[in-house]
Amino acid sequence: MTWRAVPYLLVSVVFGLGWFLVLSVAVPTALTLAIVWVGVPLAMATILAWRGGAMLERRLLWAAFGIKIADPYRARPEHGLGAHIRWLLVDPATWKDLGYLLMLLPLGLVEAAVSVVLLTATGMLLSAPVLYVVFEATNGRGEVIIDNLPGALVAGVFGALMLVLTAYVVRGMAWLHATLAVVLLGGSEEERLRASRARGIDAAEAERRRIERDLHDGAQQRLLSVAVDLGRAQAKFDSEPETARTLITQAHAGTKAAIAELRNLARGIHPAILSDRGLDAALSGLAARAPIRVDVSVDLPERPPAAVESIAYFIVAETLANMAKHAAATEAAVTVIKDHRGVVVDVWDNGIGGAVVCPGGGLAGLADRAATIDGVLVLHSPVGGHTLVRAELPCEW
């Protein structure tokens, strides 16, 4: 990170100056013209511009410092101009973005000045022996600061020391800049927790609606058909016994189908084997029902909390289901281990890759489910390559 940060530290003052000039003109102009409503569109455009600048800064910080700062903005409303204006003005991230962009100029001035002084001094000292050799080779033609070999060698040694000092100073400035960026450009811990809880509530609500839909469209309709068949059989029991017998047979088949649907639905809610025997047995059951060979390895010194087991199970179940539908894989592997972070679940397949996390999709739902206990879900699925879904689930939250 040290030397990768140098170009950013040298040019950040340019970004800061540009944003200072833009904002110092656009913001007062928009506020002045807002009296006659002309400035409202300009104000909204200015806000969107500085939010876009902050988003660009997050990407630059990732390239320069290796820190990944997710965009902390609240969810965009689906419709309504007034709702969009409130969304921009009420979101704390909007004003934190503005603070960061205004801070960029003074911070960039200090960073650029210190970097230029240290890099120039280091370069001059390190080049002293080389300049002396060139000076001697040209019979004393040219200009050098040190015109004797011992002095040039001493300067080179000091240059090496300066190089180490410069590296530490650059690293320190990069750390300070990154810390300020995380505070201003990232959401607070409370906001992140609130967002993860909200996503978890949404995921639970979506799961509830799915269960209601499955009950209404599946088992409920089958049981209603069974009731109708039994009612017809009862009416024909004396007059048409053969027809009644046929209707009873249909009702019996419908009852078995309804029981099977209810069993599958109950397995989707929470399998009994998971509660009774733990993750190893439950995941082995999933692997046995998979259409391809799935190797399962569970290495846990003790059973994790029930919430962790449940989330790990559903992540593996949904991932294997997606693999069967879309991956065209011939083999897969599930690995569950315990480390200092908590329980780590890896699901790998050798399919065609190209999986993405789309809002409202299955993988996004799994990420939301993991977020309810402050866990994270990471997807690596290059097109044409293997897919790896990793979930890191803390055992304390």
UniProtKB/TrEMBL annotation:
It comes from the Bacteria. One of its GO terms (molecular function) is ATP binding. GO terms for cellular component: membrane. It holds the Pfam family Sensor. The keyword Magnesium does not apply. It catalyses: ATP + protein L-histidine = ADP + protein N-phospho-L-histidine. The chain crosses the membrane at residues 7-27, 33-50, 104-132, 152-170. Keywords: ATP-binding, Kinase, Membrane, Nucleotide-binding, Phosphoprotein, Transferase, Transmembrane, Transmembrane helix, Two-component regulatory system. Residues 207-272 form the Signal transduction histidine kinase subgroup 3 dimerisation and phosphoacceptor domain. Its EC number is 2.7.13.3. Residues 8-185 form the Putative sensor domain. InterPro entries: HATPase_C_sf (IPR036890), Put_sensor_dom (IPR025828), Sensor_HK_TwoCompSys (IPR050482), Sig_transdc_His_kin_sub3_dim/P (IPR011712). PANTHER family: NITRATE/NITRITE SENSOR PROTEIN NARX-RELATED, NITRATE_NITRITE SENSOR PROTEIN NARQ. This is histidine kinase. It comes from Nonomuraea cypriaca.
